[in-house]
Amino acid sequence: MVNILLILVIIIIFVACIWWYINKKKNEVAEKEINVDDKTYTLDMMRAYIKRRLDEITKVNLYDIGLSEEELKRRKNKKYELKKALKGCTYGDVNDKKYVKELIYELLYKDYGIDETNVSKAIPFDIPSLLTAQDKFDILLYMYKKEYGYEALTEIIKKYDLAELKYVQGEAKPCYVITAEEINDIYERENMILSFQDKLNIVVQRIYQHYKGYSSIDEIRDMNIDGISGGVSGLPESFLSQVAQTDGDYLEQITEYRVPRACDSIWIMFQGKSIRLAFLSFGTEAELKRVCQNIYKYNNPGQLSDTNGYKINEMKDGSRVVVVRPSMSETWAFFVRKFDVKRATLEQIVLFPGYEETIDLLKYLVKGARIVSLTGEQGCGKTTMLMAMIESIYETLNLRITETAFELHLRKIYPTRNILSMRETETVSGQECLDVQKKTDGSVNIIGEVATDPVASWMIQSAQVASKFTLFTHHAKTFPNLVTALRNSMLRSGVFTDEQTAEEQVVQVLNFDVHLVKDFRGRRYIERITECIPVEEKTKYTFDHRNEKTLEGKFDKFFDNATQYFQKSTDRELYTYRNIIEYVDGEYIVTNRISDKNLIEMKNNMNDEDQEKFEKFVEKLWGVKVGLSSVEKIKETSEKSTKKNKN
Question: What global pTM score does this model have?
Answer without folding.
Answer: 0.73
